[in-house]
Write a structure and sequence with these properties.
The protein is mainly alpha-helical. Among the domains are: 76 residues, 434 Repressor (Amino-terminal Domain) (Orthogonal Bundle); 62 residues. It contains twelve helices and two strands. Strands 1-2 form a two-stranded antiparallel ribbon. Strand 1 and strand 2 form a beta hairpin. The longest helix has 21 residues.
Length: 248
């Protein structure tokens, strides 16, 4: 039976090495928080990771639920490594907000398909922009022609079969970014509105559908004209009761 954790780490290291020829095994070991000798043996398939180190690697690399399951299992399921890698790329695509932002940049006139321009435009590191761009191209969601970004699929939408962990990560990050916007962006560049109400729980499903339709209408309005910036548009509806219980 193939040791997927060993094979996956070898694949991950080779990808990082391909992007940066000076990237060393020691640097990878330091990033993962495991010993260099241990990682060397693992990549050369001389031994496997201990259960403790497997958990550490899963957390450090923020692996998807399926890949995490493979890492932690004493016996791996009959899944090809390339399938695991593809599944993990899709998971990261959904959970990391900037993939969607890069896709939306293709609608901005005079945009550039350069890592530096993308990083500056949406406020991420160049290495993050480079990795995300490569992931979008690899998944055939984006192509680059004449220094232009071209979407090869309709706008992405999340569906009910998306892992809940991916959705939670995305929502948590966007909420953090909303807080940063409140703290740092001028009031004419942002808008927040909140109302506290007593509700009939039986009407929540109907309200959710109304909220989705409203957001789509607003998005269509904002996208018309000549887009020059990338914004996040969302709304929240959540219960206020039970907060004290969750803190315990």
């Amino acid at each position: 039976m193939q040791n997927y954790s060993n094979a996956y780490l070898k694949s991950e290291f080779e990808q990082r090495k391909a992007k940066n020829q000076s990237y060393s095994l020691r640097a990878f070991a330091n990033y993962l928080g495991v010993g260099i000798a241990t990682l060397s043996d693992v990549i050369n398939d001389k031994r496997g990771l201990s259960p403790k180190n497997r958990k550490k690697v899963c957390q450090r690399l923020k692996l998807s639920p399926l890949v995490t399951e493979q890492f932690l299992a004493t016996e791996s399921k009959d899944l090809a490594l390339d399938k695991l890698v593809l599944e993990d790329r899709k998971f990261r695509l959904i959970s990391d907000w900037y993939h969607y932002a890069i896709l939306e940049l293709s609608y901005i006139k005079d945009h550039k398909a350069s890592v530096g321009w993308i990083a500056k435009k949406i406020g991420i590191a160049k290495t993050t922009a480079k990795d995300a761009l490569a992931r979008l191209v690899k998944l055939q969601l984006l192509k680059i022609e004449n220094n232009c970004l071209i979407q090869t699929t309709p706008p992405l939408k999340t569906t009910d079969n998306i892992p809940s962990l991916a959705i939670r990560k995305r929502h948590q990050k966007l909420m953090d970014m909303a807080q940063e916007s409140i703290d740092h962006d001028p009031i004419d560049k942002r808008y927040f509105y909140e109302i506290t109400i007593a509700v009939d729980p039986d009407k929540i499903e109907e309200a959710e559908k109304m909220m989705v339709k409203s957001i789509r209408r607003i998005a269509k309005k904002l996208e018309s004209g000549r887009p020059t910036e990338i914004y996040s548009l969302g709304t929240q509806l959540f219960p206020l009761n039970g907060r004290q219980e969750r803190k315990k």
